[in-house]
Specification:
The chain is mostly helical. The protein is built from 28 helices and no strands.
């Protein structure tokens, strides 16, 4: 039994909770204002043939504020995207030391943003022409939020009884930040011997292995690459991160996340479950097939695999256990079917890919629809083979199916709004996402959900969107360094050396992507690898949209592979099933998804 918390620990805990609650509440309010602003712009443009001056710029400012508010919240939980490989594999006695070094990585990242943001703010004397706001507010917001991250780090460690460790990690991070790193590093190898972008990636990878949050690792890697000839000092790192967030397309991410949360809240997701059960529940392994079909239907409205995994863990896991499925098999099924959300449109992964490569969002979404259906067919076949002895559910009559379809139409209508609207150019991706979120909000009100519950949904979506936004901003400096180092040209030259044959290029790229999926979150992998691999694929004559779809499918498979396996880890955390058992149970579904990937590659080669 742990010793009772001291008075100091209790006060630190209350203060940390108050700060986190205030940040999440304000972030939810910012998301609500952002949604109202974009919806108002859509209404004015399409119904009154007018617009709001400065609406797009104001939306970008609000998105950056949302990310800044969420930055301190990425310290713990699923939003941190920690790996913890070294800490789990190391002897127990080394655990505290590894935890200390991981916290020092966070300190380095926070200090880079604090000092770099302050310096960048001091350099900026310009003002937004449309809004009249001084431009120094943007780096200042990131600098302030990084300072709050340090405060929360110390408070949380005090609550855990690790106050001394927090002090040492702060001192270690400060020493790395302030000491002339050139003197230390020159003793290892000369600056310029390796490209700065590669050095930044290696440092980020080391921090990730030690268990530091992914976004913090990327920021620390960019900051510590300066002694190796990096052209990005700390002020430029902050400016590049802010610039990476200044894409109107990225505003679709918080709206799609909000749509998924509100659909679950409104009960529309449950109606999708009933529709799926009426259609396939009577087949062998009917409940498992229902889980798969629900993921297909829910994918058309959510766009977030993590959201689908959370929904499946709460909705299907208890039912699967009651129907005789083993705990590991039930969890593996939920994790595997959740892969579809980031492939079937609307897909946040394709939004990130479009932002990183300037590919057509509409073309990617259409390609993702076909790829997602192929993956669903392969998963359905694997479910049949693995669970064909499981008794089916009762057969639904045509009347029940018709009633289930009518009840699910409001949720299914979102697919039409999003995909059709984007594809034929009626609305932009961000506008379609805002319309979907507004529609889901109306469904939540129609379901008589109270304001407190809806506010909680906004807080959840705001936190998830801020974490993804921070990852985008943190990856931007390293992506810039990789571009300066012409890593894409190097990779293209390497591929050309192998004969520049499409088959060889696809094989090499898939091996790289499968390896990256073992250790990288899909968002970071897309932002870092897509600009590097896409030119090589295009040079070999592969259609860029086909390759983009293959890239996303490949990396989503990484959501099921150890040691990262984000979807497996999410399901493990929500269900209490050991992650190692889930990784073993998910193997048949991995094989099915690899078959789907092979088919996509063959189609790309013959297109």
């Amino acid at each position: 039994m742990p010793p009772p918390a001291s008075d100091w620990q209790q006060k630190s805990g209350r203060l940390a909770e108050a700060v986190e609650a205030a940040l999440s509440t304000v972030a939810a309010a910012v998301l609500a204002v952002l949604l109202a602003l974009v919806l108002a712009s859509v209404v004015l443009r399409y119904l009154f043939s007018t617009g709001m001056v400065g609406a797009e710029e104001a939306a970008l400012w609000l998105f950056l504020l949302l990310v800044a508010l969420g930055l301190p919240l990425t310290l713990s939980g699923a939003l941190a995207m920690r790996l913890d490989i070294a800490r789990r594999a190391a002897p127990v006695a080394l655990g505290p030391a590894l935890h200390l070094v991981a916290d020092a990585v966070t300190v380095v990242a926070a200090l880079a943003f604090v000092s770099g943001g302050a310096a960048a703010a001091g350099m900026m004397g310009s003002t937004s022409v449309v809004l009249g706001l001084p431009d120094w507010l943007r780096p200042a917001a990131l600098s302030t939020s990084a300072g709050l991250l340090l405060v929360l780090l110390v408070l949380r460690r005090i609550v855990e009884g690790k106050g001394t460790s927090a002090l040492l990690s702060c001192l270690l991070g400060l020493a790395v930040h302030l000491l002339p790193a050139e003197i230390i590093l020159e003793s290892l190898w000369s600056p310029g011997h390796w490209p700065p972008g590669l050095i930044a990636l290696l440092i980020a990878g080391l921090g990730l292995l030690l268990g530091a949050p992914l976004a913090h690792c990327l920021l620390a890697g960019a900051a510590l690459a300066v002694p190796f000839g990096s052209s990005l000092p700390e002020p430029a790192i902050v400016a590049t991160a802010a610039s990476g967030l200044s894409r109107f397309l990225l505003l679709a991410i918080p709206f799609f996340l909000l749509t998924g949360v509100l659909l679950t809240l409104s009960g529309a997701a449950e109606r999708l479950v009933r529709l799926a059960a009426s259609l396939v529940g009577h087949r062998p392994a009917g409940l498992a097939q229902t889980t798969l079909l629900t993921s297909v239907l829910f994918s058309g409205a959510s766009g977030s695999s993590v959201a689908n995994a959370a929904f499946g863990a709460s909705t299907f896991f208890p039912q699967l256990l009651r129907h005789g499925y083993r705990r590991a098999d039930a969890g593996a099924l939920i994790a595997a079917t959740s892969v579809l959300d980031n492939v079937i449109p609307p897909s946040i992964a394709f939004l990130l890919l479009a932002a990183a490569t300037d590919l057509s969002v509409g073309a990617l979404l259409v390609g993702g629809a076909y790829a997602g259906l192929l993956m669903a067919l392969c998963l359905g076949f694997a479910i049949h083979l693995v669970h064909r002895a499981t008794p089916p559910m009762p057969t639904a009559g045509w009347r029940q199916r018709r009633q289930a379809l009518v009840a699910a139409l409001p949720a299914l209508g979102l697919v039409v709004v999003v995909v059709t609207g984007i594809r034929i150019g009626i609305v932009t991706t961000t506008e379609a996402a805002a319309l979907a979120a507004g529609y889901a909000l109306l469904l939540a009100f129609a379901g008589r959900r109270d304001l407190r519950t809806i506010a909680a949904a906004f807080r959840q979506a705001a936190g998830e969107a801020a974490a993804i936004g921070l990852l985008i901003g943190a990856a931007a400096p390293i992506a810039f360094l990789l571009a300066i180092d012409d890593v894409a040209g190097t990779v293209t030259g390497l591929v050309t050396g192998f004969g520049n044959q499409p088959l060889a290029v696809l094989l090499l790229c898939n091996l790289v992507l499968l390896g990256a999926g073992l250790v990288l979150d899909i968002g970071a992998a897309i932002l870092l690898l897509a600009p590097i691999l896409l030119p090589a694929a295009v040079a070999a004559g592969i259609d860029p949209v086909f390759f983009g779809v293959i890239l996303v499918v490949n990396l989503m498979i990484g959501g099921l592979t150890p040691p990262v396996g984000m979807l497996v880890l999410v399901v493990s955390g929500l269900t209490g099933v050991n992650a190692a058992h889930l990784f073993r149970a998910v193997l048949p579904y991995l094989a099915a998804l690899l078959v789907a990937l092979l088919v996509l590659c063959l189609v790309a080669l013959t297109a």
